[in-house]
Each structure stands twice: as C-alpha cells, then as structure tokens.
Amino acid sequence: MTKEEIFDKVKATLVDSLNVDDAEVTPKSTLQGDLNAESIDFLDIVFRLEREFGIKIDRGELFPESIFQSDSEFVKDGKVTEKGIEELKAKMPFADLSDFIKNPTLEAISNLFTVESIVNFIDMKLKAK
C-alpha cells in the first residue's frame, strides 16, 4: 500500500470520526488544533484505524501518554525535558519533532499529532506486519 493510499484511508477515517469536511484534512492538519479532536476522539480514531487497516495499535503506541503527565521526569516547568524529548523520539519515530524541539512546551505536544504522523505510523505498522 502506498503512502497516498494510506493517506486516503486515514483521511476518510478522520472525516467520519471527527465529522469534519474532507478539505480540512491535509497532511499537515493537527488533530486537536485544526480538526478539533478531543481526547475521547483519539480512542475512536485508534479503533477505526485498527479496523480499516487490519492492525493492532497498543495503548499509547500512536498517542503516547506518559509524556503528558506534568509531574513526570519528562516535564519540568511546563516544558518537555531532554529526557522527555528522547522519550518522544523513541515512542514516536513516525513524527517530525524538528519544530517541537525548538520550543518543547507541553501545549505544543498536540501539534505532533498530525494527519501525516498517523500516515507514517500506519505505513510503519504495515511494513512490520
């Protein structure tokens, strides 16, 4: 399956799950900022992706949760620490962290969850299958 085919299926999944217009879903669209996804939507998206692509997505695999806890070793004073960035790199090899690393605030983490990162994740999972 090509990345374009994966994108088309991911796009259709997000349109259905988030009730957004087809034109709103671009590779650079962020789930929360651009598509107004809420945390409960993330569960639905994972379920739909599993069904659509015939894969298993473990909890925290696509949307890592450990980094979000402000009392963890990964976050200090509202910023993701070096250790936290390393954790994100390890847990999200499919995401482009280059802009985030310049200003690693907790608020900016949601910008990592883009349509493109989901496509890259699905591509990685299908190749490993």
Summarize the structure.
InterPro entries: ACP, ACP-like_sf, PP-bd_ACP, Ppantetheine_attach_site. This protein is mainly alpha-helical.
Model description:
Keywords: Fatty acid biosynthesis, Fatty acid metabolism, Lipid biosynthesis, Lipid metabolism, Phosphopantetheine, Phosphoprotein. Pfam families: PP-binding. GO terms for molecular function: acyl binding; acyl carrier activity. Residues 4-79 form the Carrier domain. InterPro entries: ACP, ACP-like_sf, PP-bd_ACP, Ppantetheine_attach_site. The chain has 2 domains: 1-55 and 113-129, ACP-like (Non-ribosomal Peptide Synthetase Peptidyl Carrier Protein, Chain A), CATH 1.10.1200; 64-109, no CATH class. 25% of the residues are buried. Helix 1 (3-18) packs across helix 2 (39-53) and helix 1 packs across helix 5 (115-128). The longest helix has 16 residues, at 3-18. It is built from 5 helices and 2 strands; from the N terminus they run ααββααα. By secondary structure, it is mainly alpha-helical. A two-stranded antiparallel ribbon has the order 1-2. It is globular, with a radius of gyration of 14 Å.
Features of the shown structure:
single chain; mainly alpha; Non-ribosomal Peptide Synthetase Peptidyl Carrier Protein, Chain A; two-stranded antiparallel sheet; 2 strands; 47% helix
Number of strands: 2
- Calculate Rg over CA atoms: 14 Å
Query: What value does the average pLDDT take?
Result: 92
Question: Which parts are unreliable, with pLDDT below 50 for 5 consecutive residues or more?
Answer: none
Helix content: 40-55%
- What would you say the CATH architecture of the largest domain is? Orthogonal Bundle
H/E topology pattern: HHEEHHH
| Top CATH class of the largest domain | Mainly Alpha
Pfam family, one: PP-binding
Organism: Telmatocola sphagniphila
Domain Carrier: 4-79
GO molecular function, one term: acyl carrier activity
